User: Which sequence fits this backbone?
């Protein structure tokens, strides 16, 4: 086994998602069928024929039992293969996540590196580039937050003004309604129509200002 592609199964090294276990090719298993029906249904004419029929039944029962065990084992192997594929997928995701985390560190394993090492220089360059990208992203997000904060502050001020203005409009409306009610009552007593229509708020109130 050590000389095959499955050597990782007996190795002390950690198993990686790229390690491919041996595949089991499922075999086609025929369904159970009634066999030798004529031989088994015939009435034996001699003791030997009776013994042969009994032996044939035992062999058929043994074959059926073996086939059922074979079906069970093959089903278990197929399910185990599916399980292994799922675990390998999760392992690959964990390995990728671990690799992505290492991109943010200059030396991921904590071991010293020679400054003349090409690999180290490459990692330094990559680290500096990632750091610049993160810094620019933070600055942009900070600028967005500050801009949004200023816009929210301005919006709140305008909303307060809108609410105050609507409050004044409603107060003025109440006064006008009371004046109209007095005119209406007087018109009823004098048997005439009111001098003006009932006031309405339609089109007078300011609508809410959408948030930025």
Assistant:
């Amino acid at each position: 086994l050590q000389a095959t592609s499955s050597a990782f199964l007996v190795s002390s090294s950690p198993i990686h998602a790229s390690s491919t276990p041996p595949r089991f090719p499922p075999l086609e298993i025929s369904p159970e069928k009634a066999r030798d029906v004529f031989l088994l249904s015939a009435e034996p004419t001699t003791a030997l024929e009776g013994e042969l029929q009994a032996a044939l039944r035992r062999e058929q029962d043994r074959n059926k039992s073996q086939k059922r065990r074979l079906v069970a084992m093959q089903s278990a192997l197929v399910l185990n293969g599916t399980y292994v594929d799922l675990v390998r997928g999760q392992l690959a995701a964990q390995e990728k996540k671990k690799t992505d985390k290492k991109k943010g560190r200059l030396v991921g394993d904590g071991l010293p590196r020679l400054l003349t090492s090409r690999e180290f220089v490459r990692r330094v360059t990559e680290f500096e580039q990632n750091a610049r990208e993160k810094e620019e992203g933070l600055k942009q997000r900070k600028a967005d937050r500050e801009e949004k904060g200023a816009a929210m502050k301005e919006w709140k001020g305008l909303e307060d003004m809108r609410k105050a203005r609507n409050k004044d409009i409603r107060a003025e409306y109440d006064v006008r309604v009371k004046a109209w009610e007095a005119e209406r009552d007087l018109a009823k007593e004098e048997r005439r129509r009111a001098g003006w229509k009932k006031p309405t708020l339609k089109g007078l109130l300011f609508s809410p200002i959408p948030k930025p």
Residues 106-116 have pLDDT under 50 and may be disordered. The first helix runs from residue 37 to 41. The helical segments are 37-41, 47-102, 118-189.
